[in-house]
Amino acid sequence: MIFHAFLIKYAEIAIKGKNRYLFEDALLKQMRIALSKIEGDFQVTKEQGRVYVFCPEEYDFEETVEALQRVFGIVEICPVVIYEDHGFEQMAQDAVSYMQARYPGYAGTFKVYTRRAKKSYPMTSMEVSAEIGGRILDAFPEATVDVHEPQLTLSVEIREKIYVYSDSIEGPGGMPIGTNGKAMLLLSGGIDSPVAGYMIAKRGVKIEAVYFHAPPYTSERAKQKVVDLAKLVARYSGPIRLHVVNFTDIQLYIYDQCPHDELTIIMRRYMMRIAEHFAQKDKCLGLITGESIGQVASQTMQSLAATNEVCTLPVYRPVIGFDKQEIVEISRKINTFETSIQPFEDCCTIFVAKHPVTKPNLNVIRRSEEKLAEKIDELMEEALNTTEIIEIG
Ligand code: ATP
Ligand code: MG
Questions:
Q1: Which is more confidently placed, 350 or 217?
Q2: Residue 89 and residue 43: Cα distance in Å, rounded?
Q3: pLDDT at 352 over 80
Q4: pLDDT computed for residue 346 by the predictor
Q5: Which of 38, 101, 185, 343 suits 236 as a labelling partner, its CA being 20 to 30 A distant?
Q6: Are the C-beta atoms of 245 and 213 separated by less than 8 Å?
Q7: Are 328 and 298 contacting, i.e. CB atoms less than 8 angstroms apart?
């Protein structure tokens, strides 16, 4: 079957007034970007409160659907067959041939749902539905009508032409990128942070990212893995500016000066400070991490409080209440899992103590950080100045 268009349904569209237009404009823009990456000249339009994608004569159906499935804000994607309007008789025949092509020998329940965008049409929607329903019953003797819970709804939209559809493919939901500001993701090579970035992007937030690497303790491969993960997240979020911070000297200095059981917490506080620096510089409104309560020593409530204390921007932790398995499920869905589990050392895994504190005391941590007074400003300055910026996507 050849589909000529897609009807796009979007939900959070309980959003009213001016915001609704912003939402729709952002949605159309993101759809156009997604479709520009695949072959063919697609037309994305908004007509009378409905969003359509009109397809070129030749296009790859699967690829098009997959591209649309990465556009946040889309709830349903309905492939549409378009017929010329040659009067009611022809329309009824077309509806029956659609059914014959799409559901040969259909024997389940159905209803016909008609919408008239062209109100001048000489029949009411109810009349059209009843009449076409009758024709379908004639053509499919084993099918029955159920208007309350049909297994199949055949939608007929009367516009300049006649649009017929019955399928609905699930979209990603959420809100279009660009409707909710920008945030800075702390992106490591693990499973959690790409998922965290995806989840915040899904709410319409544009994403930037920062990765702390520690050469030669972490390899080029570890960095490449993060670049690869950023690319995978960017398939949903759009372009990501990735800051690669050289963290080695800061880590070594902390290692030299501070008690080893506090290393992770102190390191994480410096990561947050640096991430916040770049966030402020690029007008991000928050930070994002992949932390989840209790997952590791640095993610107990006490540790999170100690990490959080150095931030002035809000820190969003969308997987905070998720079990690992739940995070893994999302990472599989967005296709980051296989990359995340590649075994390259991350800077945190190298400098961890055998018995890290799980209930850090803030005063103790602050006192330990005082031991860094001599050189830390200089090292921070150096890290900021040598940060490499990679534009992803
Ligand atoms: P992930 O799966 O994302 O690696 P994790 O369970 O390994 O998370 P941690 O290593 O404690 O947890 O890191 C917690 C969060 O801190 C990460 O989700 C990420 O947001 C951030 N983070 C950790 N290491 C780095 C790093 N090297 N660069 C950037 N962000 C990092
Ligand atoms: Mg990690």
A1: 217
A2: 30
A3: no
A4: 67
A5: 343
A6: yes
A7: no
**How far, in Å, is the centroid of ligand 2 from the Cα of 122?**
64
How far is the centre of ligand 2, averaged over its atoms, from the C-alpha of 199 (Å)?
17
For residue 80, list its beta bridge partners: 5
Express each pLDDT in 202-211 by its tens digit.
999 999 999 9
pTM of the model: 0.92
* Residue among 184, 191, 193 to mutate when testing ligand 1 (max atoms within 8 A of CB): 193
Q: Which amino acid is at 214?
A: A
Torsion of CA 249, 253, 255, 259, to 10 degrees: -150
Burial class (CB in 10 A: 0-12, 13-18, 19+), 276: buried
Q: Whose CA is nearest to atom 22 of ligand 1?
A: 188
CA of 289 to the centre of ligand 1 (A): 7
Ligand 1 near 187 CB (within 6 A): yes
pLDDT (average), residues 339-344: 91
| Residue 53, burial from CB neighbour count under 10 angstroms (0-12, 13-18, 19+) | buried
The verdict on the CB of residue 236 being under 6 Å from ligand 1 is no
